[in-house]
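Entry 14. Structure prediction run on the chain below.
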Amino acid sequence: MPTSRTYIRAHAALRLQGEALDPMVVTAALRLPPDHTHRAGEQRFHRTRGGTVVASGAPAPHGHWSMSSEAHVRSRQLAVHIAWVLGEIEPRGAALRDLIGQGASADIVCFSEGATTRPPAVPRALRERAAALGLAIHIDHYATPAEAGGAGGGGRRAP
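Output returned:
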C-alpha cells in the first residue's frame, strides 16, 4: 500500500430528491441544466450489449434531479469538484432553500477512487459553504490497488 494518498478519479454532484419532486420545477427554479432526472413512478430502461431495450427494475420511488461536475471539471482532487458544484449553486441559494422548504432533500454526493482506503479530506471552508446552503457532503470512496490501475476494490462511505 502506498504511503501517500493517491487519488485517480473524483467527481461531485448536487442531488435533490423527494416523493413529490418534479425535476422540471427544480430546473426552472435553479436555472441550471441537470445531468440526470426522473419523476417518481417513472420506469427506467437500459440497452443490453446486444442492443435490446429492457426495463431496469422497479419504477423510481421518488423524483430526482442532479448536476455533476464529472463532464465539467478535469481534476483528480475532489475538493476542486465540490468547489465547482458550490460555485454553481451558491448564487441560487434562495431558490435551493425554497425547494428544500417545499420538501426536497438536497446534498452533495461525491465519488472518489484511489490507491488508499482513506477518502479524501474535504476542506473546512467547503464544508462550511455547503452547510450554509443546507447541504451535507457524502463521499463514496473506492480503494483501487495501484497495480490494478482500474476500477475495483471496495466502497467506503464517508460522512
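The chain is about 25% helix and 30% strand.
Filed with the rest of this week's runs.
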